[in-house]
Write a structure and sequence with these properties.
The complex is a heterodimer of chains A (809) and B (234).
Chain A (H helix, E strand, L loop, with lengths): L4 H12 L1 H28 L2 H8 L5 E5 L6 H6 L6 E13 L5 H4 L7 E5 L11 E5 L7 E5 L15 E6 L2 E12 L7 E3 L3 H5 L7 E8 L5 H14 L5 E6 H12 L2 H30 L1 H9 L4 H42 L8 H28 L2 H7 L9 H8 L5 H8 L5 H36 L6 E4 L13 E2 L11 E2 L6 H14 L3 E15 L6 E7 L9 E4 L7 E5 H7 L6 E6 L2 E11 L8 E5 L10 E6 L5 H12 L4 E4 L8 H35 L1 H9 L4 H41 L6 H4 L4 H7 L2 H19 L2 H6 L2
Parallel strand pairs in A: 3-8, 5-7, 15-20, 17-19
Antiparallel strand pairs in A: 1-9, 1-10, 2-3, 2-9, 4-7, 5-8, 6-7, 11-21, 11-22, 12-13, 14-15, 14-18, 14-21, 16-19, 17-20, 18-19
Helix pairs in contact in A: 1-11, 2-9, 2-11, 2-12, 2-20, 9-11, 9-12, 9-16, 9-20, 9-22, 10-13, 11-12, 11-20, 14-15, 15-22, 16-20, 16-22, 16-25, 20-22, 20-25, 22-25
Chain B lengths: L4 E8 L9 E8 L4 E5 L6 H9 L6 E6 L2 E2 L5 H11 E4 L11 H11 L4 H14 L15 H13 L5 E5 L7 H16 L3 E6 L2 H7 L2 E6 L2 E7 L9
Parallel strand pairs in B: 3-8, 3-9, 6-7, 7-8
Antiparallel strand pairs in B: 1-2, 1-4, 4-5, 9-10
Helix pairs in contact in B: 3-4, 3-5, 5-6
Classes of the chains: A alpha+beta (809), B alpha/beta (234).
Chain lengths: 809, 234
């Protein structure tokens, strides 16, 4: 059966205009891929915890059970409770204090970690998502939670061997996988048979049960469920519970800051993709006006012309869309994995509806972009279509040529710079595409710089890379104490220990002596961070951080006011001011050790830990608390790990020496976010460059005869390339100059939104990251994008045979 | 006297199994000659011109102009060669519509890097000689065919080329205008400009060229003095 005339005309257009076909396909491929990723990010940024919770069959309640008080049958019977819709367990549970290998971690110790015995990562509840490696399949294998302890300071890749002291003495556990539980139900998982062996002699057995309830929408509903389970079991069987709502609140505060940034990039990507697709497709049809005129002159009806041209663009567009879905999903796998790390939820996926809706939307956009100019061409007479398809309207750009021709620049450059004025609409669309790409670059650079300051503002890893923890006697006297420390949620913060410890005074002497004699010590300050206090007007306890000495160097960035200068003054984070309704300059009344103390708030400090409920002050404000840790600044050039090892050796096992921040120098989450920023920015820049490529290809095709004339009168290939690149260089430079303030405005709006979502203000220094040098370089981003998009077609133009070009009408 | 153009056994095929456009052509042109290349449509005369100008490359054979092996030059070399040695005039003028007459004529000089003052003086000289001074700031779209061809001739002459190549220079013009252009070319030749003229018009060839080379199906079938030059004083 012979193809109809429309199909033949469309097929002819596709095969003859190979470059255009490839460009359309490529643009749709990258734009669809970027859009799939952008929409997936947007969708996953909407309540990621809730969706991860549903996808991983999260448990509403994690209960710790004393198996000595409840039999297996009694535990199984709790599944039948009317309040319970699903249950899993009992899973054996044990708390261990693993010791990583000495050289890798500087002889440091991990905090106590809860391990649970599970035969597989799946099950009716709390599916553990494996990020890497495999599940424990043999004794001695461990799947570590990706964030076993907030504040973990030691990198532990797969293959790391940890030593624990169990029932039969020291045992080795090898990390074979890294997993995520949406419930954070354990610090790690081993085979069920390992639990008994890992339990320290004399330690009581515990087990874990997981429950889902019919009604779990509120804390009260969860409490009712807990009550039902507790009542159904013998007294004392339920020794501890954790509600998913607490995890959700924690995750929300963790996720919150990142959502505005992800949303900003996703929206940029969507707008750019739509713009480029519309530009490319409509441009392709307009470039075919002459051919449309020829088709009409030989008898094609307007409807047939429209059908031919929408089909001609549709074929590569559909192929590009389908390829783009694949590309988008391939990109999404690592990027959503990184986003799920940032968000702290188990796994994020591209929703199925995104894979269907995005290519459909792109195809519709393509159809509209092709249909509108095709309809216009269909309505024109054959002669008018042919005339419209020739060079741009006469008179356009003439003045620009005259003016630019007077500049003392090489002639190919001035001819190239004048070209956009002949096609102002096309130049405007190209300008917009490059502008968006360059804006993304400016925004990304600023965001990266700001986040670096945020990361340091949270961790203080640059200013106080090493910390020493001792016991705190507290007011009233010495003695062995159970110490639990809660600091900010940044790395290097959480430590706990029990046992017999040196007295406070002896500990201070020992530590300060060691610090003075360990080479590399620049400065140090004693800190008491082991207490919570009551504050008038707040029901929750507030963490207290009391410094012994000058602590201005420790790296707390001020949002407003100043660091305290003596006793009776305090600095607080934004969260504290929000919770208390106070402002800098007002007084706050604290109750500590039975005494009431009033102090003045002299500054608002950047600190996101503990929901901002922390008070920083001189230790003399509250009666001379002894330090229970020391924050240490190092001399330039001193390696933190080597220093920590030396100090740990001097101090011995009674003291915890901790590295503040990862061994790589940056928090892993921060590095992941930087990677995300870099990947998204690169995608947007590529889409922008593709838009430029399309413009230059269209221009080259339109002006191929003129290119022949230029070459015939002596233009060399290099001059041709310069001229063609200059077709878009002026537009690109202008776009870059506009993009700098646009990117800065975006940065200055997104970053405060991120901070607001994290319930904190921002120090001015975190926002003002664009120096004169950065601005000057960023202004060239548009030029670079434009030049990158123009180089390939410029090369084609330069290599076109002159005689062939001259024969083209 | 050394030949200005020496073409030796040149063949040009566009299709590996088709008829060659130029088939084993050999030709020698002396400086100052005016040669007409004649033949029916598709005979290969324009292809031959393109090969001399370096606008196309021969499939085999050699092309030398002013001692320079054109067939061996790179694209950059060809562009520089055309600037220095060749001026081209086309049937449909091939002027750039968005440049003024002055800018069109200036273009080859600017590409060759001629100093601004020098280039402008040369342009002034040519516009005056070709009687198109008053159209200096006009755009080609506003000019008549004859005026456009004069602009094209001025552009071709701006870098003082050794060889002027004209491909059907009067093909798009009416008879009277065509004769004017023909006389112009004759005057240029009389003043020493070497000229190769491609035409299918025997009368034009006879009147404005000293030698006529006939090409049919890519082969030279005759190469003789133009009958129209009998009695013309040199």
């Amino acid at each position: 059966m012979r193809a109809g005339p429309v199909a033949r005309a469309a097929a002819g257009g596709v095969t003859r205009r190979r470059v255009q076909t490839v460009v359309i396909g490529l643009v749709l491929l990258v734009s669809t891929g970027a859009s799939v990723l952008a929409v997936a990010l947007l969708a996953d940024s909407r309540s990621p915890f809730d969706r991860a919770f549903a996808a991983q069959h999260g448990a509403h309640l994690v209960a710790t059970i004393d198996p000595a008080r409840a039999t297996g049958a009694e535990l199984a019977a709790t599944r039948q409770l009317p309040e319970v819709t699903a249950a899993a367990g009992p899973f054996g549970e044990v708390t261990v204090t693993p010791k990583p290998p000495g050289p890798a971690a500087g002889g440091l110790t991990m905090p106590p970690t809860t391990l649970v015995g599970r035969a597989s990562p799946g099950g009716p509840l709390d599916n553990v998502t494996l990020q890497s490696g495999h599940w424990a399949q043999r004794p001695g294998q461990l799947v570590l939670a990706s964030d076993p302890n907030p504040g973990s300071t030691v990198l532990m890749p797969i293959g790391t061997r940890l030593t624990v002291t169990g029932a039969h003495g020291r045992q080795t556990l090898t990390i074979v996988g890294i997993g995520d539980s949406v419930n954070s139900s354990a610090g790690g998982w081993v085979m069920p048979s390992e639990i008994a062996k890992l339990r320290a002699p004399g330690a009581p057995a515990t087990a874990q049960m997981l429950y889902r309830f019919a009604d779990a929408g509120s804390a009260a509903a969860i409490r009712a469920g807990v009550a039902a389970v507790t009542k159904a079991l013998p007294p004392g069987a339920v020794t501890g519970t954790e509600s998913y709502l607490a995890i959700k609140t924690q995750e929300r505060s963790k996720i919150g800051p990142w959502v505005p940034f992800v949303v900003a990039f996703a929206c940029l990507g969507l707008v750019m993709s739509a713009l480029i697709v519309a530009n490319v497709v409509s441009g392709a049809v307009v470039a075919g006006y002459r051919r449309i005129g020829v088709l009409k002159s030989i008898g094609f009806s307007p409807g047939q012309v429209v059908a031919a041209y929408t089909s001609q663009t549709g074929v590569p567009a559909v192929a590009g869309c389908l390829g783009g879905v694949v590309l988008g999903n391939l990109l999404a796998v690592p990027i959503l994995a990184k986003t799920s790390n940032v968000y702290g939820v188990g796994a994020l996926r591209v929703p199925v509806w995104v894979d269907v809706a995005v290519p459909l939307a792109m195809c519709c956009l393509t159809a509209v972009a092709a249909l509108l100019p095709a309809l216009r061409a269909g309505r024109l007479s054959a002669v008018a279509a042919i005339a419209a398809g020739r060079a741009p309207r006469q008179g356009r750009g003439y003045a620009a040529h005259r003016l630019l021709g007077r500049l003392p620049l090489p002639r190919p450059v001035t001819i190239g710079l004048a070209a956009p004025f002949a096609r102002p609409a096309r130049a405007a669309i190209t300008l917009t595409a490059v502008l968006l790409g360059a804006t993304a670059v400016t925004f990304a650079v600023g965001l990266g710089a700001s986040l670096s300051r945020v990361e340091n503002g949270i961790s203080h890893s640059a200013t106080e890379p090493v910390q020493v923890f001792t016991a705190s006697a507290g007011p009233g006297g010495p003695g062995p104490v159970h110490v639990t420390r809660i600091r900010s949620t940044g790395p290097g913060s959480a430590q706990s220990g029990t046992g017999h410890l040196p007295t406070a005074t002896k500990a201070q002497r020992a530590v300060t002596a060691a610090l003075r004699t360990t080479p590399g010590t620049l400065r140090y300050v004693g800190v008491n961070a082991g207490h919570t206090i009551s504050v008038a007007g707040l029901s929750q306890q507030v963490a207290l951080t009391a410094f012994d000495g000058d602590a201005r160097w420790t790296g707390y960035a001020m949002i407003s006011g100043h660091w305290y200068t003596g006793p009776g003054q305090v600095d607080v984070p934004t969260g504290f001011l929000t919770a208390t309704g106070k402002t800098v300059g007002e007084t706050v009344t604290m109750t500590f050790g039975g005494r009431q103390v009033t102090a003045r708030i002299v500054g608002q400090v950047f600190d996101t830990g503990n929901n901002g409920l922390t008070i920083y002050t001189d230790r003399r404000t509250l009666g001379g608390l002894a330090p229970d840790q020391y924050d240490i600044g190092l001399r330039p050039g001193v390696f933190a790990v080597a220093y920590a090892q030396a100090l740990s050796s001097k101090l011995g096992p009674a003291y915890f020496v901790s590295l503040n921040g990862s061994l790589g120098g940056h928090d892993q989450g921060f590095l992941i976010v930087l990677t995300l920023i870099g990947t998204l920015t690169l995608l947007l820049a590529i889409v922008a460059a593709l838009g430029v490529l399309n413009t230059v290809v269209l221009n080259t095709r339109e002006r191929v005869h003129d290119l022949g004339v230029f070459k015939a009168v002596g233009m060399t290939p290099r001059q041709t390339i310069a001229m063609v690149v200059c077709w878009v260089a002026g537009t690109g430079l202008l776009a870059g100059v506009i993009a700098v303030p646009a990117g800065i405005v975006l940065h200055h709006n997104v970053l405060p939104a991120m901070a607001a979502a994290a319930n904190t203000g921002l120090p001015a220094s975190f926002l003002h990251v664009y120096g004169a040098a950065e601005i000057a370089v960023l202004a060239l981003a548009g030029l670079v994008i434009a030049a990158a998009g123009a180089l390939l077609p410029a090369g084609w133009a330069a290599s076109t045979r002159t005689a062939t070009a001259l024969r083209t009408e | 006297m050394d030949a200005l153009v020496r073409i030796s056994q040149v063949t040009k095929r566009y299709d590996s199994d088709g008829q060659p456009a130029v088939d084993g052509v050999s030709l020698v042109l002396a400086p100052g000659e005016a040669v007409a290349v004649m033949g029916p449509s598709g005979s290969g005369k324009s292809t031959l011109l393109n090969l001399i100008a370096g606008l196309d490359r021969p499939t085999s054979g050699t092309v030398a102009v002013a001692g320079e092996r054109v067939d061996q030059l790179s694209e950059t070399g060809l562009a520089r060669f055309r600037r220095r040695r060749i001026g081209m005039i086309f049937q449909f003028f091939n002027l750039l519509d968005d440049l003024t007459v002055e800018d069109n004529v200036l273009l080859p000089a600017q590409l060759a890097g001629l100093r601004r003052g020098q280039a402008r003086a040369r342009v002034d000289e040519l516009l005056a000689a070709l009687r198109i001074e008053r159209h200096r700031n006009a755009y080609p779209g506003r000019l008549s065919g004859g005026e456009r061809q004069r602009v094209a001739i001025a552009r071709a002459l701006v870098n003082r080329p050794e060889l002027l190549l004209a491909d059907e220079p009067t093909g798009a013009l009416d008879t009277a205008t065509g004769e004017e252009i023909g006389e112009l070319l004759l005057d240029l030749n009389r003043s020493g400009q070497s000229l190769v003229l491609v035409t299918h018009n025997a009368d034009l060839a006879a009147r404005y060229a000293r030698r006529v080379v006939q090409i049919v199906d890519g082969r030279v079938t005759s190469d003789a003095a133009s009958p129209g030059l009998v009695g013309v004083q040199r």
